[in-house]
Amino acid sequence: MKYQPLDSTRNKPSMEQMAQLDKLTRQQLKELEERQKTPFQKFLDLVIMLLPVVCGLIAIGEYHFVPNNSPNNNPMTYMGFLIILVSLYVLYFLYAFIKKGMGDKTVHDKLLYRAPLFAALFLLLAAYDYLTLKTGVLTQPFVPCMNYIINIAWIDRAYIIECTLHTLRLMFLGYFIGVALGLVTGICCGYFERVRYWVTPIIKFLGPIPTSTWIPIIMVVASSLFGGAVFIIALGSWFAVTVASMNGIQNVDKDYFEAAKTLGATERQLVFKVAIPHAMPSILSGCTQAMSSACTAIMIAEMMGVKAGLGWYMTWAKSWASYDKMFAALFVICFIFTAVTKALDLIKRRVLRWQIGAVK
Description:
By secondary structure, the protein is mainly alpha-helical. It folds into 2 domains: 29-144, no CATH class; 157-359, Orthogonal Bundle (MetI-like fold), CATH 1.10.3720. The protein is built from 15 helices and no strands. Helix 9 (211-221) crosses helix 12. It is flat.
């Protein structure tokens, strides 16, 4: 028998194969990985995607069959809420497989990624109901069950909607004023050294001061509580956007400016065609941070002085020991801030879609 030396390069891809891999897009790589999955792995993916349905049925069964520890008026409200959530997920599941059958696996991949989170959400709802309504570990009415919260939110929906609209008006007014001023200040400080010389000390002085520190002062000095709240929100947004814009423009490679000057670019073109586009990732991150600051400031401002809004509603409900109303407003606040953050993320992806194209 003739001895065959081991070939260490037998399982290694050739140079041509490596070049082809470099040219593959992210979607093509996913399709390649899908083809390499074993039948057991595909079955496991299906189980993961069906897991939220199982967990949703567990939440429904827990609520229906486990005896209550306290009175529960209008019990079918929460039951209907759970059924709607499970039904929406089933429709999402069917839509994902229909799109997959048509050759588009984007929705399928998103559902596979999010399915564990949806399953955890149903289990969290079941655990919360068990600890409140079923066992009383979390004492009611101080920690009301989900059925109480949904019922009172529906009963008091007109007042909650009015407070929500006031909160949104106040938040977006202060946010957009702060972002607009922050963009001007940050771009000027980042590009013009003389402006940065005078403004940087002010930023360093105001930056370490928390937004909540200004609230007692502004509430006394301001002619109206609404105007003072707008100023507080705008101040926090201005600082976040200013710092992010200034740092983003300062970090732009100087070679881009030199190349643009060589091609005859004017000062205005250097700012709007070179500096701002290359600093856009940092600017958008500053806008997201500014929204977080605005959300915190508006809740504090409404709780301390403004006579309307969700923060005021929570304080008012607490003073009357209406903890179910307080929790209802809390969930509305969480939903609003989550939706706003998601919208900012979509805007960021849309504006920075050239980065995704570069990755592909």
